[in-house]
Amino acid sequence: MVNQMSGAGCPHMGNFPVLPMSGRLARSPKDMDSYKSYKKIIKATAGDLSIQMDDSVVCHITASRRSGIAQFVFPGNAKEGTVIIGAGVSSTTLSNAFIKITSPSSCEGYAQGGDFCGYKTDYRIYFAAEFDRPSKEQGTWKDGDLRNGRTQIGGTRTGGYFTFDTDGNNAVEYKVAISYVSIENAKENLRADNRNRDYRQVLADTRSEWNKQLGKIEVLSHDNDKLTQFYTSWYHALIHPNLFSDVNGQYIGADFAVHQMQQGRDAYTTFSGWDTYRTQCQLLAMFYPKEASDMMQSAVDFARQAGGYGRWIAANIETGIMQGDPMPIIISNTYAFGGRDFDLQTAYEYMKKGACIPGTCSQDVEVRPGLSNYLNKGVENASLCLEYTSSDYAIGQFALQAVKDAKGAASFFKKSMNWKNIYDSSTRWLRSRNNHTLQWKDPNQDWREATKENYFWMVPYDLKTLVDTLGGKKEATVRLDTLFRKLNAGYDDHYYAAGNEPDFQVPWVYNWTDCPYKASQTIHRILGSMFSSHNDGLPGNDDCGAMSAWYVFASTGLYPMIPGVAGFSISAPYFEQITFHFPKGDAVIRGGSQTKPYIHEMKINGKRVNKTWIDWQDINHGITIDYTTSSKADKKWGL
Fold it and tell me: Which of 591, 511, 2, 575 is nearest to 234 (CA)?
């Protein structure tokens, strides 16, 4: 497949699947579902995948910026090998497709339609593919009709095949590029991206580039398995958002028109907003301010073309997945952490439009459902209300920092205090109210993918007030301790859910209590018990890098806690030494340990400090942080 998203929680995309098979094609592949999956993974590293199929064909796969290349090695005793390419086949339901065999070694086509988590994603995607040598036989299929020599076919459940003579040369290379604009652009992407390189050359270049990028964080540890976990997470965190514009700068907009990017800029897509605003966007801005700026410009351009910000964008479609208004948080976070080269004023205008004008839509999806009630009465369904308050706070920060609108900032900061309207002092919990009568609803109602115990702490910008309202630091500690009795709760459980986003920031809330040492204690528990290097090594969906970015932050002892604020809540690092190679300087963190989770002493550039917060501006130009950690809790540190 050419466009599968990383760690998304639903079937999606999966266009133009390709499958090598030993021998000739005897019957129509139809929807390709009858074929067995791969037999085993031979190798899987950044930019380098090798798998063995059930019939012993070995597939070596790598990719460059806008294209992919595979080497199919057929069994030595096979005289023929076939490669089948699905056009009207994908991970979800298509409405139309087309494939044309343009020579014995090339083909092209398109596919239309699809869905994501039950929401229609009616995008069109084009492809161009070529082999390194001519095939001996080609054909196409539709449903059960397989025809040798037929060079084109349209509709769903369609595709093409190429059969090669593998007697004496059992390796076949396959190159493919895509475009969301046109077949010609896909061809141009293929020509420009591969530059006549073969598989080995592309693989070498790709591995070199990934080593360069992953080397922006250097981790020292004697535990190779933990290093594998870390660098797998770092790799996953860098996959999305992904390039969307073609090599000539063209891309298909949210208005379904072809647009042209400015010279030197790229358009991006795959914004898993509800997931990634908490962790991933900050990480990208810290290391890649130029690319992060292009991503934010892409989000602004999408809003301009669609009418408002999307909250979960796939290709050029606002899917409407999840809830809240996350894009202003992503933009505000990105600006705060260094990605600032985008249209700030227009970004702010669409933030205000979505947050202040009921009925504002992104394509046909309402940006803030229930906004009238939220503006007029200060309430909405509980988890949705908290999402809106976080977004309002982030907009306030952006207004203050990016566009210097102090009056506007004050207005949004005031609205971010709407969380207080859903605090029930009789139960000491946040809960929904009836939108008309304001009567309290069932305390377990209206929590998206979690419970009241998880969402209670989702006021990261006003935790001191939240803690005081609850009854003080000791009461907050008791409630947190109860939450962390379990770490792997499901959506309806009343404990911590390491595998889902609403709980991401909660371990660091201990830094606002009388027991900051429990932040490090709890994070080490999560890292040690909920993550592994096995196939099921994540506690939940990676959600386009959100979970992996959490691991990177948690294991380095820094967490970007507050929407739109460039700084970190601190915990003990998990590794002996971590070096961040930021664009403006290196930050070195020393003294972490997997077996000594408690901070006893912290020094910044040789000066002893006793605080649980550090600003990004104190780190990004270079810093040295030295920890002395212990296996015994230091209950005074951080107070």
Answer: 575
The answer to whether the bond into 502 is cis (omega within 30° of 0) is no
User: Which DSSP helix (H) or strand (E) runs through 281?
Assistant: helix 280-287
Q: Would you call 553 helix, strand, or coil by DSSP?
A: helix
Provide the pLDDT for residue 71: 98
Question: What is d(CA 533, CA 556) in angstroms, rounded to the nearest whole number?
Answer: 18
Q: Work out the pLDDT band at 535, boundaries 50, 70, 90.
A: confident
- What stretches of 114-230 adopt beta strand conformation (E)? 115-116, 119-120, 124-131, 137-142, 145-148, 152-154, 158-165, 171-179, 217-220
CA distances from 516 to 16, 103, 288, 459, 528 (A): 51, 67, 32, 18, 19
What is the pLDDT confidence band of residue 125, given thresholds at 50, 70 and 90?
A: very high
Distance of CA 611 to the CA centre of its chain: 31
- With residue 312 as reference, give the H or E element that holds it: strand 312-314
Q: What is the pLDDT of residue 37?
A: 86
Written in H, E and C, the secondary structure of 184-213 is HHHHHHHHHHHCCCCHHHHHHHHHHHHHHH
Checking if the pLDDT of 190 tops 90, the result is yes
Please provide the distance, in angstroms rounded to a whole number, between the alpha carbons at the two ends of the chain.
Answer: 52
Instruction: Give the model's confidence band at 195: pLDDT under 50 very low, under 70 low, under 90 confident, else very high.
Output: confident
For residues 260 and 250, the answer to whether their CB atoms sit within 8 Å is: yes
What are residue 577's DSSP bridge partners? Answer: 220, 590
Q: Distance (Å, rounded) from C-alpha 217 to C-alpha 234?
A: 9
Reduced to 3 states, what is the DSSP secondary structure of residue 224?
Answer: helix
Task: Count helices and strands (H / E) in the chain.
Answer: 16, 36
The answer to whether residues 582 and 620 touch, using CB atoms and an 8 Å cutoff, is yes
pTM of the full structure: 0.97
Contacts of 77 (CB under 8 A, 6+ apart): none
Burial of 116 (0-12, 13-18, 19+ CB in 10 A): buried
Residue type, 602: M
CB neighbour list of residue 437: distance below 8 Å, 6 or more residues apart? none
Return the structure tokens found at 175. Answer: 């190159």
Please tell me the predicted confidence (pLDDT) of residue 554: 98
378: how many CB neighbours lie within 10 A of its CB?
Answer: 19
Q: How confident is the model at residue 413 (pLDDT cuts 50, 70, 90)?
A: very high
What would the mean pLDDT of 243-259 be, rounded to a whole number?
98
pLDDT (tens digit, 9 = 90+) per residue, 9-34?
Answer: 888 999 999 999 999 999 999 999 99
The pLDDT of residue 196: 87
Question: Residue for token digits 């970015």?
Answer: 549
Q: Rounded mean pLDDT of the chain?
A: 97
Mean pLDDT (whole number) for 237-251: 98
Tokens matching residue 71: 């080497």
Confirm if 64 and 205 have CB atoms less than 8 A apart.
yes
